Amino acid sequence: MDIEVTRSEGALCHRCGRPLLALLDVPHSFRREDGVEVRGRRRVGLCANCDRHDTAGQGLIAFFTVNTGIADNQVGEVADLVAEWIARLPPPPDLSDMVEPDEENWRQNGA
Ligand SMILES: [Zn+2]
Question: For residues 64-78, b (16+ Cβ closer than 10 Å) or e, as one string?
Fold first, then answer.
């Protein structure tokens, strides 16, 4: 999986407003009802406050609390922690919900 981890650079947590430890740029995809796979990327913030009770996020939080960046010899370690955390993230906002009303409208109007 192609995940980019960037320093949060002052970005704030959308949940509690505190500075984020890191921002992760994560690819995701989902399959629409018509079978078309929609691919995209989303940015996920790692917050020491909000994510501290998430067992999957604790390893990452510990890492970024101690380390301000990722050294070359730490890439493997971070990749494992990120993979663990990503696997536990809630699914992205369901875009199909946003698309559906339009499609419904489209069908009803018979356009
Ligand atoms: Zn937070």
Answer: beeeeebeeeeeeeb
State in Å: Cα 111 to ligand 1 middle: 45
Using only the alpha carbons of the chain, give its radius of gyration: 18
CA of 10 to the centre of ligand 1 (A): 13
Give the rounded percent of residues in the chain with a pLDDT score beyond 70.
77
Report pLDDT for 17.
Answer: 95
- Domain layout of the chain by residue ranges: 4-109
16 alpha carbon – ligand 1 mean position (Å) = 4
Helix (H) or strand (E) holding 5, with range, is strand 4-7
Q: What is the pLDDT of residues 22-64, one digit of tens each?
A: 888 877 778 889 999 888 888 888 999 998 888 888 888 999 8
Q: How far is the CA of 27 from the centre of ligand 1 (A)?
A: 22
